[in-house]
Amino acid sequence: MAFSHAQQSIDPVTALLGIELDAHGNPDDSVFDLVETLIAQRPFENYADMLWQAADDDIPLRRIAAVLEILLGYTPDHSTGLRQTLELWLQAGDEKHVAIALAMDEFFPLMEYEKMLKVFRQISKRFPSFRSRCRAIEAVRKKESGISPLAHGWKKLCSRF
Q1: Which of 64, 81, 85, 120 is the most exposed place for a label (fewest CB within 10 A)?
Q2: 12: Cβ–Cβ under 8 A, 6 or more apart, which residues?
Q3: Could you read off the pLDDT of 71-124 as tens digits, one per residue?
Q4: Cα 122 to the center of its chain, rounded Å
Q5: CA dist 45 to 6, 68, 136, Å?
Q6: Pair 51, 67: CB distance under 8 Å
Q7: What is the 3-state secondary structure (H, E, C) of 13-64?
Q8: Planar angle of CA 104, 67, 76, nearest 5 degrees
Q9: How far apart are the first and last CA of the chain?
Q10: Is the pTM above the cut of 0.85?
């Protein structure tokens, strides 16, 4: 993939952190070119930590989450490293790291449903302000995966024996 001189000279991390979000919290289409430039210039980096370290304190966390969500679809390792970092943030991160990971709309943290529930219970204890967001993600995940509350309760009951 060939890039113009302008694309090669920009710092995609700085540009990505400066994107504007619409009223729904989504970036405009220019973000895709920036993501492609970032990956071409710095393949196999830890993009989550890279953005986190480059972000000023005044950058909205939703902006970082929006960029990371797009990166999930573009990374050369099929987002394995990015998912691992986001899962680590959920399990052991500070409040801002957890907020970023929970702000994603298209990303289900923690692929295993039971593990997600366990981590969300821990998050809700550590950061009660995230309880409603965790419950909302759980509800969407149940609905999209076809997990009924009854089946979930039955599995929980059977696991006791």
Answers
A1: 81
A2: 34, 35, 37, 38, 41
A3: 988 888 888 889 999 999 999 889 999 999 999 877 776 778 889 999 999 999
A4: 18
A5: 22, 13, 31
A6: yes
A7: HHHHHCCCECCCCCECCHHHHHHHHHHHHCCCCCHHHHHHHHCCCCCCHHHH
A8: 105
A9: 57
A10: no
Task: Note whether 113 and 141 are within 8 A (CB).
Answer: yes
CA distance 18 to 67: 10
Q: Across-strand partners of 21? A: 27
Return the structure tokens found at 36: 């492609």
CA angle 52, 84, 75 (to 5 degrees): 75
Residue type at 108 in one-letter notation: F
Would you say 65 and 103 are in contact if contact means Cβ atoms under 8 Å apart? yes
Tokens at 145, concatenated: 């995966």
Which DSSP symbol is given to 130? G
Q: What is the mean pLDDT of the chain?
A: 84
The 8-class DSSP code of residue 80 comes to: H
Task: State which H helix or E strand residue 112 sits in.
Answer: none
Contact 36, 73 (CB under 8 A): no
